[in-house]
Amino acid sequence: MGIRTGEQYINSLRARKPEVWLGGRKVEDLYSEDVFKQPIHEIAKLYDMQFDPEYQDKITHMCEETGERVNNAFLVPRSHEDLMARSRLFETYARATFGLMGRTPDFLNVVVTSMASNSWFLDKYNPDWSVNIRNYYRHIRDNDLFLTHAIINPQNDRSKASYEQKDLFTHLGTVKETKDGLVVRGAKMLATLAPITDEVIIYSFPGFQPGDERYALAFAIPIDTPGLRIICREPMQDGKRSVFDHPLASRYEEMDAILAFDDVSVPWDRVFMYNNVEAANSLYPMTGIAQQPAHQSGVRGYVKLAFATEVACKVADSIGVDGFLNVQNDLGELVQAVETIRALLRVSEYEYEVTKDGEYRPAPAPLETIRGLLPKMYPRAIEVMQIIGAGGLLMSPTGADFENTELRPDLDKYFGGREGVSAEERVRIFKLAWDLCGEAFGQRLLQYERYYTGDPIRKRAIFYNQYKRKSKFEMAEQALKDTTKPEKNLI
Ligand SMILES: Cc1cc2nc3c(=O)[nH]c(=O)nc-3n(C[C@H](O)[C@H](O)[C@H](O)COP(=O)(O)OP(=O)(O)OC[C@H]3O[C@@H](n4cnc5c(N)ncnc54)[C@H](O)[C@@H]3O)c2cc1C
Ligand SMILES: Nc1c(O)cccc1C(=O)O
């Protein structure tokens, strides 16, 4: 089939009945559920872009294996141009959602592409596993599927390993093998957008110890597999708020969920590994599933930071405060942050690596630097927005107020901005800002930037340790050598 339309995505969603729990009840019809309606349409728009002549060649390509048109997320990069083709896809999808939706289909499709194209390392453990992941890649590529993932254990007692938790199956683990496959039980988090996806893939960050065998597993199943329960967090909005009042929260809410597996059967052909601590710990380093998706999240994070910066600038301009030195200093800092991320992305794309199998990967150090900087830069952009918008952020009337003819003259008089900025224009700008910096929706966006890639503190520590392993500290050694020379040799 190859690329599918938004309508095809929606139709397949409507044909499924995953077990989704929301606010204490089972959702009967996902598509009619207010909270999911708009996000479903935002994802559908991305699918439709694949058929739009303006975007088609930017975000899709002809698959060599099938001769069908497929999304660039499924492209195994074999040249610098391929890397840039992916970059164009990431930026096109990110711009379509202002970088506010982190887990658009491209993210996990890139993960699976990387796993499949580097699956050879699994052969030494079980050749079926690498065959399975490659077939799975073909399946999602040729059906243009949308995946969620859950790679973290629920936060129960982080001071203990999985096998030491109160119940052996608090964290997701293998219960038994059958002739048809594995039976798995327990929970995994934090599956963003799970209710409105086609499939879920389970794997884990490295860090397994002996004793963790039953938890060292990776597999993928349809999201409506019997026994899989999707427990949604409290929604950040009810899905009925007006686009005028909540221009972003009403459209880009990404639901997050815990996945509880109640003796779920995973067919053998969907098992990518199990019962193997060494294989599970090798998954990240051997497959590039840190590097390739970091390219997507770097581009998306760049667009999101640039968007937040533009909104902060519009807030300042609309009330005439951007002539003040302190405001210019803060806004200049945000623009420099955006430029820093843009530059890091370009460095990662131009100083690419080529694996021994000829796969092109963006350079890891600049991408890891983005991962280290964005969790500080994005919250700072939000803080600057709050500081510049000040009391006005809390003082926006509603769209309904603007429609009231008795009230309207007062609104036009008291809510107008600087010369040339009408009341409605100023209020609209402030509402954009409030969704980002005041609403629960905006707080989630901030938490996402802090944690989407794991704990930023431990990530930075790993980054430093890798630097230390590689670096010979040559300049420092040279300077030390110079100062140990006898004084007479120094000029
Ligand atoms: C909005 C959002 C969306 C997300 N979407 C997804 C998704 O789609 N799929 C997915 O799989 N994951 C997703 N994540 C989850 C993300 O991967 C985790 O939040 C992240 O890895 C951090 O893990 P944690 O939340 O369990 O925090 P913890 O690991 O529990 O950390 C809690 C605190 O304790 C400290 N801490 C914990 N353990 C240690 C230790 N051993 N040493 C030192 N300090 C420690 C941390 O520094 C931190 O301050 C998402 C997260 C967010 C916030
Ligand atoms: N955060 C990630 C994820 O959830 C899956 C795969 C990779 C990453 C990452 O940031 O490296």
Automatic annotation (TrEMBL):
Cleavable signal peptide: none
Keywords assigned by UniProt, alphabetized: FAD, Flavoprotein, Oxidoreductase
Domain HpaB/PvcC/4-BUDH C-terminal: 280-480
Domain of life: Bacteria
SUPFAM superfamilies in UniProt: Acyl-CoA dehydrogenase C-terminal domain-like, Acyl-CoA dehydrogenase NM domain-like
UniProt keyword Flavoprotein present: yes
Every HpaB/PvcC/4-BUDH N-terminal domain range: 5-273
Entry protein name: 4-hydroxyphenylacetate 3-hydroxylase
Species this protein is from: Sutcliffiella horikoshii
